Sequence to fold (44 residues):
Amino acid sequence: MDGYPGYILVFVSGLMVGCILGHRWIRIVYYWAQNKIRHLRDHN
Fold:
């Protein structure tokens, strides 16, 4: 377990940030990805 404390810290802090920003960020990323895909499809 010697190499892991940093990784666990990053993971836990990522979880906390995810909980704080949570659904808003998921929604933003989801719509952004949909728009990107739509633009790529339209240009081809």
The chain is about 90% helix and 0% strand. Residues 1-44 form one domain.
